[in-house]
Design goal:
It contains 16 helices and four strands. The protein has 480 residues and is mostly helical. It has four domains: 138 residues, no CATH class; 45 residues, SH3 type barrels, CATH 2.30.30; 111 residues; 65 residues. The protein has a four-stranded antiparallel β-sheet with strand order 1-2-3-4. The two termini are 63 Å apart.
Length: 480
């Protein structure tokens, strides 16, 4: 059901787009037709068609403009132009010739014409030709023909019945035969035009609006010759087949689009799961590193506690000996015991110094930092120069008590610095100023905390710095 709803929704959207495009195209055609009226009027008034050898305007229309409807269509457009001009400000409400056609008979009465347009706008903000026709009939009703009862004349058998002739006169100044009279001697092809035969024998199709007293056919449906009917039926069938083809292509396109969208959604979900797995893997690695660090700290704390206990034992042994037995030096037995403990400590010191030359592969920085701090404590407790030198090598400073102590205090700030920096980086959007407010406090140990950060974290910091520099350059240029 969900798939069907989506297809129906998309079909509706495609229908709306296609329908709007069709309407816009016809509106553009109507607009261009009305724009061409002024040029047509100039051709008619100046009689410029004679330059091309045409005797009258009708021949020019049939010869040059037959593909656009010929003389009949040109007369319709001229009539629509007259309606738009006579309507004044309301002329802009008439969008095409079809809307102007039922108003053409009111051109000579501008008040009624304007009233009809306003009435149509009141009934429909976007009136059609039928709305204008209804409004025109309300403002100026069409006179009903009176039925005349008369006896049909008897026609001899050898004589064809005569078609009643109605004499009319061309009343429109726009028509090339203005003021000339003719005879209607054939049935009208539609409700708005008549076939008129003039004195010189020429037969023309003339609009009812250009005639005085024209007889309007009572037929409500236009008739076509057989060949036209066949052509119209063929066009309808072709149009039906084209609609079916377009409908089939639309269904195929919608199915392909639905399939592509489903594949894209599945691919996106797979990518999200892969990213989640990668994040969880990185978090597990970080937790394992933290556990290793905590285990190393625990071992170092145990060793320090053992050293402190041994020092306390030695101090107690010295205090229990009488002062006269010691003199200015220690006895050989005490000296041997102390030298043995120092030797063991120095052996460990030598091993720690070798670690400074070739650190372990996992958690190397943290292990060396903790080893250096342990050696510093050992050198202070034992007053051992080799331990002090080893601590200086590991901590990367001078082999002096003050330098090693200062470096140790700095490194003790490292866990806190990394924690505060990562709190800033964890925000969704952080600026370089926010990071610098924290990092400035730990500037002296920048190489140390920088080595502890991951590549992703350092890239975020570098990008924030670049963005800040670009913003500064843009601001300076704007001020300049």
């Amino acid at each position: 059901m969900l798939t069907l709803d989506r297809e129906e929704t998309k079909s509706a959207l495609h229908y709306d787009d296609l329908n709007s495009s069709i309407k816009d195209t016809f509106a553009t055609i109507d607009q261009f037709e009305l724009q061409a009226v002024e040029q047509i009027r100039l051709m008619h008034h100046e009689r410029m068609y004679r330059i091309a050898g045409y005797k009258n305007f009708e021949q020019y229309c049939q010869g040059e403009l037959h593909v656009y409807g010929g003389y009949r269509r040109i007369n319709q457009l001229l009539g629509a132009s007259k309606v738009i001009v006579a309507a004044g400000e309301l002329g802009s409400q008439i969008k095409n010739e079809r809307q102007a056609r039922p108003l053409l008979r009111l051109v000579k009465e501008p008040e009624k014409l304007i009233a009809a347009i306003r009435l149509a706008l009141e009934s429909n903000p976007e009136p059609s030709e039928s709305d204008f026709a209804d409004a025109a009939n309300i403002v100026a009703p069409m006179p009903r023909e009176r039925k005349q009862f008369h006896q049909e004349p008897l026609v001899p058998k050898n004589q064809e019945p005569l078609v009643p002739k109605n004499v009319i006169t061309i009343s429109s100044p726009e028509h090339p035969r203005y003021g000339q009279s003719g005879v209607i001697c054939a049935d009208a092809p539609n409700n708005s035009q008549q076939i008129v035969t003039f004195a010189d024998g020429e037969r023309l199709l003339v609009n009812n609006a250009d005639l005085d007293g024209a007889i309007v056919s009572q037929s409500n449906q236009r008739t076509y010759p057989p060949e036209y009917s066949e052509a119209i039926a063929a066009l309808k069938e072709q149009h039906k087949q084209e609609l079916e083809r377009l409908s089939q292509e639309l269904r195929i396109g919608l199915q392909a689009e639905v399939k592509a969208r489903a594949e894209a959604q599945v691919s996106e979900q797979i990518q999200s799961l892969q990213n989640l797995y990668k994040q969880q893997k990185e978090q597990n690695i970080q937790l394992q590193q933290r556990l290793d660090e905590m285990e190393s700290l625990r071992q170092l704390e145990t060793e320090n506690q053992q050293l402190k206990e041994r020092i306390q034992d030695l101090e107690n042994a010295v205090e229990q000996r009488p002062s006269q037995q010691w003199g200015n030096t220690m006895t050989q037995q005490a000296t041997k015991a102390l030298n043995k403990q120092v030797k063991l400590a120095l052996e460990k010191t030598i091993d720690l110094r070798s670690l400074a030359v070739e650190p372990p592969k996992e958690n190397a920085t943290e292990c060396l930092r903790l080893m250096g701090m342990a050696l510093k404590n050992l050198s202070v407790a034992m007053n051992n120069t080799q331990a002090l030198e080893a601590a200086a090598i590991i901590l990367g400073t001078s082999p002096t008590q003050s330098a090693v102590a200062t470096r140790t205090e700095q490194l003790q700030l490292l866990p806190q610095a990394i924690r505060e920096i990562r709190q800033v980086l964890a925000r969704i959007e952080f600026t370089w100023q926010e990071f610098w407010a924290v990092a400035e406090k730990y500037e002296v140990i920048k190489p140390d905390y920088w080595a502890e950060l991951t590549t992703q974290e350092t890239d975020l910091i570098t990008q924030a710095q670049k963005n800040s520099e670009q913003l500064t350059v843009i601001t300076d240029n704007a001020d300049t």
